[in-house]
TrEMBL record:
Name of one Pfam family that matches: LRR_1
Protein's name according to its UniProt entry: Osteomodulin
Species assigned in the record: Nicator chloris
Purpose of the protein: May be implicated in biomineralization processes. Has a function in binding of osteoblasts via the alpha(V)beta(3)-integrin.
Complex formation: Binds the alpha(V)beta(3)-integrin.
Region listing for Disordered, in residue ranges: 388-416
LRRNT domain location: 58-92
Record localization: Secreted, Extracellular space, Extracellular matrix
Signal sequence range: 1-20
Predominant location: secreted
Amino acid sequence: MGILNYLLILHLLWAALVFCQYEDYDFEDEYGGEPDQPPYYFNPNTQAEVPRFPFPVECAKECFCPPAFPLSMYCDHRKLKTIPNIPRHVQQLYLQNNNIEAVPAGPFTNATFIREINLSYNNIKFHMIDHGVFAKLSNLVQLHLQHNELEEFPFPLPSSLERLLLGFNKISRLPGNAVEGLPNMTMLDLCNNLLDDSVFKEKPFSNMKNLTQLNLCNNKLETMPPDLPPSLQHLSLENNSISHIPENYFNRLPQIIALRMSHNTLQNIPHNTFNLPNLLELHLGHNKIKQVFYIPRSLQHLYIEDNEIENINVTVMCPTLDPLNIKQLTYIRVDQNKLTSPISTYAFFCFPLIRTIYYGEQNVPGSSPSRLRTPVFRRFLTPEEFQEAEDNHETLNQETEDDHEAEDSYFHPYYH
């Protein structure tokens, strides 16, 4: 008997053991609600080089410079209307939650070492930013301008910039030269603006060779953004009006790890659309999808809630069994669809690592919202898996209240 046949027999015996485990366990009453999902955090690591200065260092009288963080100046939540003069040694400047309307060049004259500026939650408008004020900061790595009154992209910017947060503004266009000269940009957040498909005519993102995270959620897009760089790993397109994903669209984006497209108008998805080698997380909830699609081996979390799916065809999701390359899917959310019966038990052969299927309520035509036999299906955990789940739950419970109140409709743009 060939080695492949021997391996196949072992795999089938093991799968049968898993299947029996599912069949023997009663999930009826133990789990009654939707399992909480932690927010997604994207955490690039950047080490700041600390220049040597004589201490104690100076600090603007309007601000606070803690001795424990001598390179940081805290001017946030102080009802400031203007930016104070920034001492030469400052690397991190925090000006969020003030009443600042303008960004003049004067206060930044000596700020040659500054690496991070947070000007979020102010009243800044594009025409009130002195031309080139940011471009002159040759060490600037991270710039926060979300929750302001910007009508345009705040260019020019320094080539050193790696992370730019512009969410919750009024930006409606991206001039062709807006993102030129930004070879180090890894993360760009443009969620909650007024962007439509016209912004892609000049291919603004095509030359951003190091871009790994792009947030375009809560805009006015109707089509998939073209000419995105192949370096992209995290793409957020929720809360737009996208109705179609072109066939082979993701062929040029092989490094995608997480894709969020919930709250669009997607209907028919080509079978192999998401056949990506690195895809771990896929959000397609709150669309108009009627049929399931192929699930790549790497995918771990699938969200297809609030669609129009009547039947989940497992053979479409998993056309063949490969005992040497088992599917990694562990979590599926399928509530608010039109299912009348649970997913076929064949799914446990195709996806032997599944831990949770959240059925919730279903919107069956001609009846009020109904539940299947169990709203939540969970696999019987080993002691080691149970302890891991408990540890993860404890970590989740330690999140701050601010974390829970933060907008979770797109990839969280903050770093820990």
